[in-house]
Protein: Carbohydrate ABC transporter permease
Amino acid sequence: MVSTSTPSRPRTTRSGVRSGQALSGWLFTAPVVVLLGLFLGIPVLMALWVSVSDWTGRGSPFSSGVEFVGWKNYSDLLTGGGLATQDFGTSLRNNAWYVLLVVPTQTAVSLGLAVLVNRAALRGRGFFRTAFYFPSVTSSVAITVLWLFLFSASGAVNRVLSWVGLNGPNWFNDPTGVVHALLGAVGLGSGPSGLTENRFLGVSWWDWLGGPSVAMSAFIIMAVFTTSGTFMLLFVAALQNLSGEVAEAAVMDGANGWQRFWRITLPQLRPTLFTVLTLGLIGAWQVFDQIYTGTQGAPGKTTLTPAYLSYQSSFVNQEWGQGAAIAFILFVIIVALTLFQRALLRERDVPVRRRRAAAVLPPTGGSR
Structure:
């Protein structure tokens, strides 16, 4: 038997192709990487150094006169017990209520608007999409100025409330907490000693549970009004990419509209829902321009937020170390809440036993 062997052909190795593709990719992305490094990476590292130094804002933060102080700026904010701790705790309380009310409300409103404008039976869907999205592209400064007029003591909002017999508050000058106001209306004007005497970050637990102030409530309404249109477009895009076969099968099985929404549509929107909640969470914790243009923390620091406090500490009080420390604490809070939210909304894997049982058990019903 004569064995014949085919001559080996020269071939390009996969590693060589991959290395060439990787080199091309780095060449294409190099300009963006350089720009991000210059205008994002280096400033972040400089701010991190400022947060652990005693830089006063004069000269270079890397000059020989600037000394390393370690965690002093952070400890002054978190455990110092002075005015810095109280202001930081107040800003966190205000912003926490803001996030707690804005993020779920704007998500629900934007999802409802998306379902509404995505209906085929609705006429003029393009007009309604544009109308709902228009506040999102309007300048936040212009919207804030408009809100100051609408929610003034003699503004249009109080005028409308007077038509139904309600005496509207002096919105942007009322520091009363909404929860405290509701409790006071039923005769619970003061809290128990366990809540009023114990403090966290310089703020009593009774004040932590007081709810947003009347002034902050106006900003909450404004945030929902200006951001729901943007998130509506994300939900509309997701709804248009959903397959209608599952919904049609559910209709044939007798499911009503509410059941189809909760059991079929909403689970398929989980990736978009995570995106909307994450963007809403980041934006709500970084609220600044409305506060700067509107109240600057007044009345009684009930609209003070960490972002505005960071600006005030740095540019007004010249305490640049504390201002940078506030920014990094806020960054840690946002990252932690985002990771928690991601773990909460992730898809659960089907247990192995259930998958094996589903594979072994025969399908129910007779053959057709």
Summary: Residues 355-368 have pLDDT under 50 and may be disordered.
